[in-house]
């Protein structure tokens, strides 16, 4: 798949070299007319993820120059696609795919050999105008502000797939979110509460406990040796679904925290990729260990519908596009829960 399927135009925050925020500079690019099947979207808001920090520091290698950021929402300003017109307000599905292979035709876009996250494997949304396939568009819920809509796509879609498709969480079950202070973790707390689950959370910073409780967590524990607290808090049962994006530092504790027949879902390994695995704990307790990534277009449409029904992202702070370096620095050091949004 050519990364030219998604291109960034107008003022763009371009990573020129991976040396942190200082390696990102604003450039002006011309805005071409969209070819058949594509649209130009004037972004009203985009948002940053920790993926952007890994990209600008070189932890996640990308080809440069690269326009960063995956999240975005805005108004169509030019359309060469049926069903979409200038003035339509949209939220962007944050994934590029070939849209032609058997997996894409079956709606399994995350299995496409050309699967790409915007801002990582293709140009991204830290720009004034993004040109992309009309298939990437979902109508913006009127209930969401531009900042909320711009903050919705990547982290919330990742959490949505983990909880609904992979973890099969249902109302009344107990959900444990390990590493709840991060973007995926915070999204998982909000989504779990929205779905009617009892939500427990861990964090390295217990100073964020009240913030997490305000988002819907029933109990908040230190990320250090948390399984005993989880077992005690659930009267010996454990959690039906455990979300772990932390990796080596917490995974054994996550397995210990799951109830018999529980589902442990992982989407990341920020503290290390190799974990000790007590196999008897897995097979004797009938545990499921499930891998996950960000989601499909159908899952994104379900997420947007949930936002229409009351699910709301948390926005920690807004910056102008010209403040991109400050925004990246704030993302790295902030002690606030929620997304960092770029106003366009």
Automatic annotation (TrEMBL):
Pfam families: ADH_N, ADH_zinc_N. GO terms for molecular function: oxidoreductase activity. Coiled coil: none annotated. Residues 20-342 form the Enoyl reductase (ER) domain. This is NADPH:quinone reductase-like Zn-dependent oxidoreductase. It comes from Nonomuraea endophytica.
């Amino acid at each position: 798949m050519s990364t030219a399927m998604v291109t960034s135009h107008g003022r763009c925050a371009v990573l020129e070299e991976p040396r942190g925020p200082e390696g990102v500079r604003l450039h002006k690019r011309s805005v071409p007319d969209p070819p058949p099947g594509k649209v130009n979207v004037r972004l009203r808001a985009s948002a940053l993820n920790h993926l952007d920090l890994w990209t600008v520091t070189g932890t996640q290698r990308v080809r440069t120059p690269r326009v960063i950021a995956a999240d975005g929402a805005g108004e169509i300003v030019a359309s060469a696609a049926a069903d979409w017109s200038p003035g339509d307000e949209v939220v962007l599905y944050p994934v590029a795919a070939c849209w032609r292979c058997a997996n894409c035709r079956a709606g399994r876009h995350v299995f496409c050999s050309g699967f790409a996250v915007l801002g990582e494997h293709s140009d991204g949304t830290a720009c004034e105008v993004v040109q992309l396939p009309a298939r990437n568009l979902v109508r913006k819920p009127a209930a969401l502000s531009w900042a909320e809509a711009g903050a919705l796509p990547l982290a919330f879609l990742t959490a949505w797939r983990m909880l609904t498709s992979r973890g099969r969480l249902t109302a009344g079950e107990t959900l444990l979110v390990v590493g709840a202070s991060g973007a995926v973790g915070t999204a998982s707390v909000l989504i779990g509460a929205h779905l009617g689950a009892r939500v427990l959370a861990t964090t390295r910073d217990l100073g964020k406990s009240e913030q997490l409780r305000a988002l819907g967590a029933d109990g908040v524990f230190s990320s250090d040796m948390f399984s005993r607290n989880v077992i005690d808090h659930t009267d010996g049962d454990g959690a039906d679904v455990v979300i772990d994006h932390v990796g080596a530092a917490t995974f054994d504790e996550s397995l210990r925290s799951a109830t018999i027949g529980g589902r442990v879902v992982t989407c990341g390994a920020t503290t290390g990729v190799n974990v000790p695995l007590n196999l008897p704990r897995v097979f004797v307790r009938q545990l499921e260990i499930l891998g996950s990534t960000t989601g499909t277009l159908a899952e994104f449409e379900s997420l947007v519908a949930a936002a229409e029904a009351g699910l709301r992202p948390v926005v920690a702070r807004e910056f102008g596009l010209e403040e991109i370096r400050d925004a990246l620095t704030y993302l790295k050091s902030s002690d606030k829960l929620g997304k960092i949004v770029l106003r366009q």
